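To whoever is covering the structure queue this week,

Two jobs came back overnight. Logging them here so there's a record in the thread.

Job A:
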Amino acid sequence: QVQLVESGGGLVQAGGSLRLSCAASGNIFSVNNMGWYRQAPGKQRELVAIISSFSLTMYADSVKGRFTISRDNAKNTVHLQMNSLKPEDTAVYYCRLSRSINIYWGQGTQVTVSS
């Protein structure tokens, strides 16, 4: 099994920044994809950014140029630096690890951006 624990959420004013972190533990193999998804009230969960074991990245169009995903393979952690935050970024942010057909989710961390 794999456990994912997120941290770093909170309340911030529009234009501000937050850094989310996700620590993975358990039965982790080196080859996997890690990513961040978010779910706003009344909306479906959506991709924010993902990063492969080789640090290839992909971003949702809505966050390109504002968010940066990174990972530390030695520490099994993934981070999401969020700059120029907007009220529409308000959501619960979930960390996800995928490896082959297995997908694991964290419990989520709330990000609230006030206008």
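Job B:
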Amino acid sequence: EVQLVESGGGLVQAGGSLRLSCAASGFTFDDYAIGWFRQAPGKEREGVSCISNNDDSTYYADSVKGRFTISSDHAKTTVYLQLNSLKPEDTAVYYCAAVNIPSLDRLLYGSSWDRAPKEYEYWGQGTQVTVSS
């Protein structure tokens, strides 16, 4: 059974930090990329970051570059998203999702890793991040 389980969300003041985890199981970890998406109430889902587990290439949305860092622990089949310098506009439910490498390559060739979330095969249940001002 494929599972993606997010954890690490919570309430933090502006300027604070959180580390989100996405524990993956039930598929060959290195054959997939893991993306983080977020959705705030009343807003469209947006891509935050992605890491390709075959070569550890990383990708970031402009809104989080320099503040968020994605990393992958292959031994634990877990992807982390370090959130620093948090802002109230980062408040959202954060989801991790898995896309196979060939599909990621097609997305990148088209324009961007996050242009078609429907290409991501597996999704977690989400973890809430709330940043107070």
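Note for Job B: The longest helix spans residues 101-110.

Please reply-all if you pick these up so we don't duplicate work.
Q.
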